[in-house]
């Protein structure tokens, strides 16, 4: 065979394949284009509804006073979960630096392989001591803690009874378990009792509630919940992300506030809010449960260990709270100062005495526009709307910090009054 014929014979299959590849690529591009059109349509609908969530860029450390890209001067921050002002506390920051120097940036491993350092065990011990529980297990976030608990604890013969307004992470965690799921009306003890009666044939029953509901700042009726749980042979679980560190006489949380620490069996909470604000979550409870979570909880088994600087910061935050309740005690007066002044000005503030102070507006677009106008007046707040809150219940959620001064609070109220009058919310 001549060289020319050999070349032609080699080329034939290539020519046969190329059209097929071209057709496959065309279909692939068409599928991607169709998907892009669907996604763009969804995004357009969010913008049209006025529920688009833009991310403002902060150019400083977290605190009551921050710098925001595109804004002049210092901005007062009234929407962080930095309840105790510990995110930039000098002792907390220094503890993170020391942990970074001593233990490195990270473990590059999950806990059970080579990702457990003595500082992880030390923090777990301190958190168990803080909550007065037997043991503690750390997670990358409280979302992970909620995702990892229920499928380990509950099986198909069990029942879980959940408040209808529980946090999304609780809802998603419950979806992963095979237990019978019963949802009771928000903080409705009569409906909870009906559901407990319905679950009497189950092997185990677990009542699940947020200690504080983050969108409204309302506190779960734990005394009544615990009494019903005891009457019907159920355990009680609470998520304390918006309570740990500052509710109760010593800042232990909702269960301490309401005098039921010895009646609540399992507590999940976060390191990412009052306890330094970096990252991380945890479960505290009976030691057999914690031991089983270490063996079977998927977010724990398949996620890297918390980085040493994060653990160092959180440990120092917990130590500060174990040593003194002074910071936690300062919250009540500041919270009531804001709530009372806003109510007197004519605004509707949801919740009770919690530092979460939702300024109820109803309309999503109005909440977004007012938040933008507040920023122009030097106050950083964010509008919350569907799907974060139910439709028709848009609000600006204000959060008071122990680091805010009375002058900060008064300036925030004055800005709300000016903005509220501009948009016809108050007269």
Automatic annotation (TrEMBL):
Cofactors demanded by this protein: pyridoxal 5'-phosphate
GO cellular component terms given for this protein: mitochondrion
InterPro entries on file: 2am3keto_CoA_ligase (IPR011282), Aminotrans_II_pyridoxalP_BS (IPR001917), Aminotransferase_I/II_large (IPR004839), AON_synthase_class-II (IPR050087), PyrdxlP-dep_Trfase (IPR015424), PyrdxlP-dep_Trfase_major (IPR015421), PyrdxlP-dep_Trfase_small (IPR015422)
CDD domains: KBL_like
Gene Ontology molecular function: glycine C-acetyltransferase activity; ligase activity; pyridoxal phosphate binding
Keywords: Acyltransferase, Ligase, Pyridoxal phosphate, Transferase, Transit peptide
Pfam families named in the record: Aminotran_1_2
Family the entry assigns: Belongs to the class-II pyridoxal-phosphate-dependent aminotransferase family.
Protein name per Swiss-Prot or TrEMBL: 2-amino-3-ketobutyrate coenzyme A ligase, mitochondrial
Organism: Parambassis ranga (Indian glassy fish)
Gene that this polypeptide is encoded by: gcat
């Amino acid at each position: 065979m001549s060289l020319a014929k050999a070349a032609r014979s080699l080329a034939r299959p290539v020519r046969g394949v190329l059209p097929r590849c071209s057709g496959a690529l065309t279909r692939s591009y068409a599928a991607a284009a169709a998907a892009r059109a669907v996604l763009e349509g969804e995004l357009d609908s969010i913008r049209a509804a006025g529920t688009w969530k833009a991310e403002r860029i902060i150019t400083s450390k977290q605190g009551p006073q921050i710098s925001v890209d595109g804004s002049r001067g210092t901005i007062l921050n009234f929407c962080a979960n930095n309840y105790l002002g510990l995110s930039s506390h000098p002792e907390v920051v220094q503890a993170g630096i020391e942990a970074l120097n001593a233990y490195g940036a990270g473990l590059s491993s999950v806990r059970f392989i080579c990702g457990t350092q003595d500082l992880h065990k030390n923090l777990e011990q301190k958190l168990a001591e803080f909550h007065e529980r037997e043991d503690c297990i750390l997670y990358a976030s409280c979302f992970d803690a909620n995702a990892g608990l229920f499928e380990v604890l509950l099986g198909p013969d069990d029942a879980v009874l959940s408040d209808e307004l529980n946090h999304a992470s609780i809802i998603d965690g419950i979806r992963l378990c095979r237990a019978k799921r019963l949802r009771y009306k928000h903080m409705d003890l009569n409906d909870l009792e009906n559901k407990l009666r319905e679950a009497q044939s189950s092997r185990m029953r677990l009542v699940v509630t947020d200690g504080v509901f983050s969108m409204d700042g309302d506190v779960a009726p734990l005394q009544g919940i615990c009494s019903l749980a005891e009457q019907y042979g159920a355990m009680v679980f609470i998520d304390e992300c918006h309570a740990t560190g500052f509710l109760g006489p010593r800042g232990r949380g909702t269960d301490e506030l309401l005098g039921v620490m010895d009646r609540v069996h399992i507590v999940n909470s976060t390191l990412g809010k009052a306890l330094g604000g970096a990252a991380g979550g945890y479960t505290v409870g009976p030691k057999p449960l914690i031991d089983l979570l270490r063996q079977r909880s998927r977010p724990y088994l398949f996620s890297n260990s918390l980085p040493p600087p994060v653990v160092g910061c959180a440990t120092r935050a917990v130590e500060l709270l174990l040593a003194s309740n002074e910071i936690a005690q300062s919250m009540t007066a500041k919270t009531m100062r804001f709530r009372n002044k806003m109510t007197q000005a004519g605004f509707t503030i949801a919740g009770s005495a919690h530092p979460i102070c939702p300024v109820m507006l109803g309309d999503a677009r109005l909440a977004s526009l007012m938040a933008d106008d507040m920023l122009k007046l030097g106050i950083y707040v964010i509008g919350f709307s569907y799907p974060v809150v139910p439709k028709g219940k848009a609000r600006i959620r204000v959060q008071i910090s122990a680091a805010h001064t009375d002058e900060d609070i008064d300036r925030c109220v004055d800005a709300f009054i000016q903005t509220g009058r501009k948009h016809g919310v108050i007269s």
